[in-house]
Amino acid sequence: MTDSTRSETANHVIGEGMEITLHFTLKLEDGTVVDSTKDKAPATFEFGDGNLPPGFEHPLKGLAPGAHERFSIAPEHGFGQHNEHNIQFLKREDFGEEVPEPGMVMSFADKAGTELPGVVKQIDGERVEVDFNHPLAGHTLTFEVEVITVTPAVTH
Q1: What is the pLDDT of residues 80-103, one digit of tens each?
Q2: Mean pLDDT of the chain
Q3: Which of 46, 62, 137, 155 has its CA 20 to 30 A from that of 94?
Q4: pLDDT at residue number 10
Q5: What value does the mean pLDDT take over residues 116-125?
Q6: Which CATH architecture has domain 84-131?
Q7: What CATH number was assigned to the domain covering residues 3-79+137-152?
Q8: What angle do CA 123, 137, 59 make, to 5 degrees?
């Protein structure tokens, strides 16, 4: 690699207009791994493209290839606080032939026809309690990253 080539590929840091390839691990407060790319292909995305929630993307800004960092992401910067209003009670008959069981993740349509995932929490006779909060809502998460490459994004 010549000095001119090295200067063109080096010194890129994460920010607007950059494509990032990294490995990440996302953990709960107790260390339980929620998601990780460690045993598979790394994640590649353009900074600001919406693939990462802003609370996960913001701490990456300014990092360069080779960086290994660990960030604590508070609920309000991750998947939000748990909201009691997102727990709904539905009628057993609303499920038709499907037999809901606690722990099942099911897809529901809201009034606008948008699909929403919900977790069946409990069944009490003809009432089914469904939690529409994101499963990671209310959790402070540990976001570990290993930045592999940072290059200017190719615009289409």
Answers
A1: 999 999 999 999 998 888 888 999
A2: 90
A3: 137
A4: 56
A5: 92
A6: Beta Barrel (2.40)
A7: 3.10.50.40
A8: 165
User: Which residue has 């802003």 as its token pair?
Assistant: 54
Output the six-digit token pair for 37.
Answer: 């790319």
Residue 133 DSSP one-character state: S
Query: Can you give the pLDDT at residue 151?
Result: 96
Rounded to two decimals, the pTM is 0.76
Could you tell me which residues are beta bridge partners of residue 35? Answer: 26
Of 127, 131, 83, nearest to 103 (Cα)?
131
Query: In what helix (H) or strand (E) does residue 46 lie, and over which residues does it extend?
Result: strand 43-46
Are 14 and 62 contacting, i.e. CB atoms less than 8 angstroms apart? yes
What stretch(es) of the chain map to CATH 2.40.10.330? Answer: 84-131
CATH code 3.10.50.40 region(s) in the chain: 3-79+137-152
pLDDT tens digits along 10-42: 579 999 999 999 999 999 999 999 999 999 999
Q: Please classify residue 123 by burial: count the beta carbons closer than 10 Å to its beta carbon, then call 0-12 exposed, 13-18 middle and 19+ buried.
A: middle
* Residue that has been written with the tokens 């993307």 in this structure: 57
Tokens standing for 109? 């349509």
Asked if 148 contacts 64 with a C-beta cutoff of 8 angstroms, the reply is no
